[in-house]
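hi! just following up on the protien thing from before. the input was this:
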Amino acid sequence: MIIAIDGPAASGKGTIARRLARHYALPHLDTGLLYRATARALLDEGARLDDPERAEAAARGLALTDFDEERLRGADMGEAASVVAALPQVRAALLEHQRRFAARPEGAVLDGRDIGTVICPDARVKLFVTASPETRAQRRALELRGRGEEVNFADVLADIRRRDERDSGRSSAPLVAAADALRLDTSELDVEEAVAAAVALVERRRAGA
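and the predicted 3d structure came back as:
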């Protein structure tokens, strides 16, 4: 069983994906880390984030394991990843990485922004997880404060809206719900409620509803 989870930044899709993977004993891939790792490699090289050739080379050189997540988190890396993810060359380079992961015999859970539409269009279960921009900005601000970063809510909200616009407006694999995706709005849900709602949706789709 492949569970494809898409949604904008800070919607809760990553947490839901990890919990679903644990619940169903499936491997999980946070595809956003691939774009963050590509951006990190470019920054470490002193290269421009919008350099298509350098970015493609960095993407092709990635492995799907042993990411230093501490260096890939934070507001700056999220913004950098969003810039890199808008490059068609990078998305093409990472496509097979993600599809190979999804092709495991036991299935997999993948979360990102084009899983149900591009990476795994035939996935048995597709979820589109969202929340209001204000709710997502509040969550991201709390996350960043927990990491010891100084946070201005207005700046975080502006960053969320800027990333939404870039993700939904890019020419290659824009963020959009798959036609057959089940929607989950987590604006008014805590973590446990969101996970329970996601499990219910997965079971609904597994039952053929």
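The chain has a mean pLDDT of 93.
The domain at 2-206 is CATH 3.40.50.300 (Rossmann fold).
cheers
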